[in-house]
Design a protein that fits this description.
The complex is a heterodimer of chains A (246) and B (297). Chain A has helices at residues 48-55, 90-100, 105-118, 134-146, 164-181, 192-198, 232-245; strands at 4-15, 22-33, 37-41, 63-68, 75-78, 152-156, 184-189, 201-205, 212-217. Chain A has 246 residues and is α/β, with parallel strands linked by helices. Chain A starts with a strand and ends with a helix. Classes of the chains: A alpha/beta (246), B mainly alpha (297). The A-B interface holds A 53, 56-58, 75, 77, 79, 81, 83, 85-88, 96-97, 99-100, 128, 130, 148, 154 and B 191, 193-194, 196-203, 207, 211-212, 215-216, 218, 290, 292-294.
Chain lengths: 246, 297
């Protein structure tokens, strides 16, 4: 096993409201290792997105702490919607993180072009976001999240708004991209199939207030193909997750 | 794409009515109304046809003018004939007076537009970003809109003299409010998800303004500028009519005093040309800067 990249200890969040506050997350603790693909699985309202937003620095926890090995991490985030800047082309959107880091124009372009090829968007470099399908837009968002070589990828139900067929195609793509880039990934999802197909490990969050209920190692062989979802072992793991959620 | 009518979130007024019509998703109500007021919704005709009908209508107006002035039996100081106006135009052009006055008015307009826009954008950004600041200044902003600028123009000329400065100030004041409102609407309408994205990338305040807020607010902002550009012509002329020794408004006033009605016509037409040119300039800017939006045909 590789070194721990992220250690989360007793993380709790309470949103202030009129009757004493809404407890969204209740002392969640876990560790994520380098180059691991971890899925956070849970029903709606279990605080999975809240947890991700805390790790991304978008939200302050009420209690607890989290530590990234090597200090302040570089983060690549993908949201449920592609959140592209409509006034930038595909290439312009992908280059954004490098622009913010002040990387030179030629290097930006070269690296963006490399990622365009990795996510399979050749020929669409100069297209506007309004002309992209949902799946294509999400590919742009994934490329953008990868371009500045982040320490961790935080994916917040990235395929939640896609249709079923596109979503399953994107699983294979993401799996391939993850293996090509050797990134640490933490992905939020409420789909058991998605979690099992992609992850090395699945963390199950309970109903609100969310706490880690199960930490399941997914020992399915890689690379995983579509038909792995119809094996008996996949079914057994799925049942375990299902029981943990309920 | 359109959405079901949603209630408007008021900028300064909480009691605005709900949008009665569907509007594009993500476009705030105020911006939608401003756009509806300033753009032509009937775009289905071919551009060629539209151009011909416009020319035809202009020609009809011109012929009517010619006929009325020739057979209407009106003296020239009431309605000069087109050819009298044309010859007066050439005379004013040849002796340089028309150019001098136009240059003065144009300078007042541009300086006023610039000052008003910069001030409105700065204040509008602060209002959009801070609810506290909004509550502090909103009463003054609304009250300032209740005072017709035409009514305080004489006061400004008394205070700041008949020179250019008082006109620049009037222009700036008249431009200020529409640009401010649109800045507030534009900045507030920046999607939260894009803010989250920038923050997850640890963008600085300056980077968020430059890379996110300015480009996102630009369509609405330019809509405000388009209104402001036309209004600033009015501001300059009002100021010059009240008291000035140069400018097209002054020219109208002095020509009227001499019963030189042809020259009044020349000045008025020049003002129309000026207003159209400014409007066209902003429209051109919109087309240039907003090419990422749906076609701007």
């Amino acid at each position: 096993m590789t070194a721990p990249l992220l250690t989360v200890r007793d993380l709790s969040v309470t949103f202030p409201d009129s009757n004493g506050g809404l407890e969204a997350l209740d002392s969640a603790s876990f560790t994520i290792y380098s180059q691991e693909f971890v899925c956070l699985l849970g029903p709606s309202g279990s605080g999975k997105s809240t947890l991700l937003r805390i790790l991304a620095g978008l939200l302050q926890p009420t209690a607890g702490e989290f530590v990234f090995a090597g200090g302040q991490p570089k983060i690549g985030m993908v949201f449920q919607q592609a959140t592209l800047m409509p006034w930038q082309t595909v290439l312009g959107n992908i280059m954004l993180p490098l622009e913010l880091d002040g990387v030179r124009e030629e290097e930006r372009r070269a690296r963006a072009q490399e990622l365009v090829e990795l996510v399979g968007l050749q020929g669409f470099e100069e297209a506007w976001p309004r002309d992209l399908s949902g799946g294509m837009a999400q590919r742009v968002a994934i490329a953008r999240a990868l371009i500045h070589d982040p320490d961790i990828l935080l994916l917040d139900e990235p395929f939640g708004s896609l249709d079923a067929l596109t979503r399953e195609r994107m699983w294979t793509e993401l799996s391939r991209i993850w293996q090509a880039r050797q990134k640490t990934v933490l992905m939020v999802t409420h789909s058991i199939g998605e979690a099992l197909f992609l992850a090395d490990r699945v963390l199950v969050l309970s109903q609100r207030p969310g706490r880690i209920k199960l930490d399941l190692k997914v020992d399915l062989p890689r690379p995983r193909r579509d038909d792995i979802r119809y094996t008996a072992h996949f079914g057994r793991l799925a049942r375990k997750l299902k029981e943990a959620i309920e | 794409m359109s959405v079901a009518p949603e209630p408007c979130s008021g900028v300064f007024f909480d009691s605005q009515p709900a949008c009665p019509v569907s509007r594009p998703a993500g476009l705030p109500c105020e911006a939608f109304f401003l756009q509806a007021m300033t753009t032509n919704p009937t775009r289905k005709h071919s551009p060629l046809l539209t151009r011909w009908t416009a020319l035809l209508s202009l020609a009809a107006a011109f012929v009517t003018w010619e006929l009325v002035s020739r057979y209407g039996g009106l003296p020239a100081f009431i309605l000069p004939a087109p050819e009298q106006v044309a010859s007066r135009f050439w005379r004013a052009l040849a002796d340089g007076s028309l150019l001098t006055h136009t240059a003065v008015t144009l300078a007042e307009i541009l300086l006023g537009l610039l000052a008003g826009t910069v001030a409105a954008m700065a204040l509008g950004y602060a209002v959009a970003k801070s609810r506290l600041f909004e509550r502090l200044v909103a009463p003054y902003l609304v009250a300032s809109q209740a005072i017709p600028i035409v009514a305080i123009a004489p006061l400004l000329v008394i205070w700041f003299g008949p020179g250019m400065f008082s006109k620049v100030l009037i222009c700036a004041l008249i431009v200020f409010f529409p640009v401010l409102v649109n800045t507030v609407v534009g900045v507030r309408a920046v999607p939260r998800a894009l803010h989250d994205l920038m923050r997850s990338l640890r963008a600085t305040r300056g980077q968020i303004i430059r890379r996110l807020e300015v480009p996102a607010a630009l369509p609405v902002l330019l809509g405000g500028l388009r209104i402001g550009a036309t209004l600033s012509v009015i501001g300059a002329v009002v100021g010059e009519l009240v008291g000035a020794d140069k400018g097209l408004g002054f020219l109208v006033n002095s020509a009227r005093g001499q019963y030189d009605t042809a020259l009044v016509f020349v000045a008025v037409f020049t003002l129309i040309a000026l207003a159209l040119a400014l409007y066209g300039a902003v429209a051109w800017l919109e087309k240039k800067l907003l090419s990422w939006q749906e076609s701007h045909a």
